[in-house]
Amino acid sequence: MPAPLFRVKVCGVTNVNDARLAADAGADAVGFNFVPDSLRCIKPTAARQAIEALPHGVLAVGVFAGMPADEILEIAKTTKLGAVQLHGHLTGDGLGVDPPSRCAELGDLPVIRAVRMEADGLVAARAWLAAAAKAGRLPDM
Asked: How far is CA 94 from CA 6, 10, 59, in A?
């Protein structure tokens, strides 16, 4: 079993000072939310400034929900993210859904799959993971 990407992630960081504070407090990873309707959504230019302020060894994670892979990859490149967290819905075909094929579409960028624990969440997560494997790639976490 591979080693985990991190142990403690502070998420929803929106500025340079908070990114530094999280790193100084011992965070292994700092999360930047790129979900447009979220109160903690950060612009890529602000995220890049915060990411550049992180010390070496602190993983910068971009949080996304239902965004197309090409847009995720562009933000990851622009901001220098070290990993992507897919936080969209597991099922459906509307907005806010991360299809199982998304992992493969993100190439070799490390992917974390968040799972909301709601009714049938575990069943949906298992089905999503099986479909991701069939599509060519499981998430790293």
From this structure: 31, 29, 30
What values do phi and psi take at 62, rounded to 5? -95, 130
Torsion over CA: 48, 54, 60, 63 (sign)? negative
Q: How many Cβ atoms are within 10 Å of 21's Cβ, its own excluded?
A: 14
CA 129 to chain centroid: 16
List Cβ neighbours of 123 (8 Å cut-off, separation of 6 or more). none
Helix, strand, coil fractions of the chain, as percent rounded to 5: 35, 15, 50
pTM equals 0.91
Residues 6+ apart with CB under 8 A from 5: 29, 59, 83, 110, 112, 140, 141
Residues 70-86: pLDDT tens digits? 999 999 999 999 999 99
pLDDT tens for residues 32-69?
Answer: 999 999 999 999 999 999 999 999 999 999 999 999 99
